[in-house]
Amino acid sequence: MSGRHMTEAAGLDERTERQILLTAIQREARLAGGRWAVAAIDCGSGEEVALNAGEQFPAASVIKVPVLAALFAARDTGLVSLDETRELRPEDVVGGSGVLLELHPGIALTLEDLARLMIVVSDNTATNMVIDRLGVQFIEEFLRSNGFRQMTLQRRLFDLEARAQGKDNLIAAGEVAQLLRRLHLGDLPPLTPASCEECLAIMRRQQHREKLPALLPKAAVVASKPGGLEDVTHDCGLVVTESGSAYAAAILCADFRDRRPAEHAVALISLRLYEYFESAGARAPSA
Known about the structure:
The chain has helices at 3-32, 64-76, 111-120, 124-134, 136-145, 160-164, 173-185, 193-203, 259-283, and strands spanning 35-42, 48-51, 56-58, 85-87, 108-110, 170-172, 221-229, 232-240, 246-254. The chain is α+β, with helices and mostly antiparallel strands. The radius of gyration is 19 Å and the shape is globular.
């Protein structure tokens, strides 16, 4: 077979494999019920897999990833120091996930402490303390300056008054995956490449691993951040496979019938993506 015909055949095989993957994703989503969006990007080739990737969803705790990146942007531009301390006040404490609501007000935590709590145990109080220090406008300007239009932070967590005014935190799977890919590539100004890696290092310490990482091989290295509300279950992550290839993924679900099947579907879709990108790494031509 000529080189041209081999290239055409390889391209056809890749398109066929991608279609098989998308069919499998759609099947898992249909069985679980609800509204779904999936986006995954190979960090090397830029190949994308997308299902409703531009559709906006309630962000839940996935919004904490851009908040983390914005904190490091503020650090890298000299606006804050991660060693700066913030005192926990009674009015800071909100419900939901985390540990700070169990502690006595008055304790001092550094911004780095708050960032780790925000991501590793999804602490909502810590998140609001970071948002308060940076300001919603700073975080929004950081996102817009990097070209993100569908990912938006409009209010603090558990701000019911702002929510009643129609303000909400929103994400789209495609932009979440792009944000993670750009962190991996060290291409998210004004963050330095070292700061991008610091963000991913914090995400690798994630304790809530019931969805995107759940079915992946133990050798996979995963930096992830899940999110959930009463009718929302998401997860996103930067995954390095056993062979060393890397991809960014975001799997979003809302309006499901039953949480357990929806969360299992997130894990199954994540596994399908892993298998696809791992085999893509094996297909990649050697230099």
